[in-house]
């Protein structure tokens, strides 16, 4: 994806398709991903890039060891 807005739109349309197919596991996965994307967008309104999984995780869990940044 080129932007977070495109990713959100794609997930919304895929959720509708998965619901129509009765694919509940895919609906749950995409709904959770959509929630994370929307939270990231709320926290970073000026940032339009499509965040990767680590960025989403660290936005929600900044104190996790994977997310800590140390200055030398």
UniProtKB/TrEMBL annotation:
Residues 4-72 form the CP12 domain. Pfam families: CP12 (PF02672). SMART domains: CP12. It comes from the Bacteria. Residues 1-19, 40-52 have a biased composition (Basic and acidic residues). InterPro entries: CP12_dom. This is CP12 domain-containing protein. It comes from Prochlorococcus marinus str. MIT 9116.
């Amino acid at each position: 994806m080129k932007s977070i807005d495109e990713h959100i739109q794609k997930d919304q349309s895929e959720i509708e398709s998965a619901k129509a197919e009765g694919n509940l596991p895919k609906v749950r996965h995409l709904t959770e991903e959509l929630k994370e994307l929307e939270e990231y967008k709320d926290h970073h309104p000026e940032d339009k890039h499509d965040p990767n999984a680590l960025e989403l995780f660290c936005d929600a869990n900044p104190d996790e060891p994977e997310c800590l940044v140390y200055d030398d």
